[in-house]
Design goal:
The chain has 264 residues and is an alpha/beta fold. It has a single domain, classed as NAD(P)-binding Rossmann-like Domain (Rossmann fold), CATH 3.40.50. The chain has ten helices and seven strands.
């Protein structure tokens, strides 16, 4: 995949996987649109990119405001005239037992992870269909393939993304627009620190799985070639990825194993 001057729009670009992807695409000569809520952090990421005045634009947005996505798409398209790839990376996690999770928290996670992602994608789709090319990338999770304790709403939001974008892929095939679902295992980011508790407050703890996980820079380097191959579904991580295959082939055994696992 030749990336020089390709226009890549990345949400959640102010930290973690999104930031690492921004740097990796920038090294390959892509033109970037970086989005997240924190304008100051987006400016920092931009400044860390080479040739940033010409090749990096920032477009602050809040995925919780799904009704703003059409206007944001118009702004993004005005920056370079088109978008070749949309990487839906922005999102929020959750760490609480289902019985203790307030419905307002459930709705917030779904609003950001599902409705925000769908809203932004739908806003950009007409232009990709018109140009007869494009690539929609969704950073999901292994939690999109199975659920565990302490992550009920987060897993539900990721499962919903799989159902929606698997269907969308079939609709876009004739328009030459690809859809890739990316399922990371543990990546060393602040995802658990920023996760919501049942009451909607920040969890403020680094999850055990994240502490010694794959660095986001390594994740980004491994992901880009797989995107170039046009894979429908991409898995990147460690031993935790085995859960996907255990769930598929020996679901009864996998369920028994999960009941004994202590998750954080």
């Amino acid at each position: 995949m030749g990336l020089r001057k390709k226009v890549i729009w990345i949400t959640g670009a102010s930290s973690g996987i999104g930031e690492a992807l921004a740097y990796e695409f920038n090294k390959k000569g892509a033109h970037l649109i970086l989005s997240a809520r924190r304008t100051g952090e987006l400016e920092r990421v931009k400044e860390n990119c080479s040739n940033h005045e010409e090749s990096v634009k920032i477009l602050p947005l809040d995925l919780a405001e799904a009704d703003q996505m059409e206007a944001k798409a118009v702004e993004a398209l005005a920056m370079y005239g088109h978008v070749d790839m949309l990487i839906n990376n922005g999102g929020v996690s959750q760490r609480s037992y289902a019985v203790d999770t307030e419905m307002s928290t459930v709705r917030k996670v779904m609003e950001v992870n599902f409705f925000g992602t769908v809203g932004l994608t739908k806003a950009l789709l007409p232009e990709m269909i018109k140009q007869k090319s494009g690539h929609i990338v969704v950073i999901s999770s292994v939690m999109g393939k199975f659920g565990t304790k302490f992550r009920s709403t987060y897993a539900a939001s990721k499962h919903a993304l799989h159902g929606y974008f698997d269907s969308l892929r079939q609709e876009l095939y004739e328009h030459n627009v690809n859809v890739s679902l990316v399922c990371p295992g543990y990546v060393k980011t602040d995802v658990t620190i920023n996760a919501l508790t049942g009451s909607g407050e920040k969890f403020n703890k680094m999850g055990k799985g994240q502490k010694n996980a794959m660095p986001p820079e390594e994740f980004a380097k491994k992901l880009i070639p797989k995107l170039a191959a046009g894979k429908d579904e991409i898995y990147l991580g460690g031993a935790e990825l085995m859960g996907v295959y255990l769930k598929r082939f020996v679901p009864g055994l996998f369920s028994k194993l999960l009941k004994r696992v202590r998750v954080t």
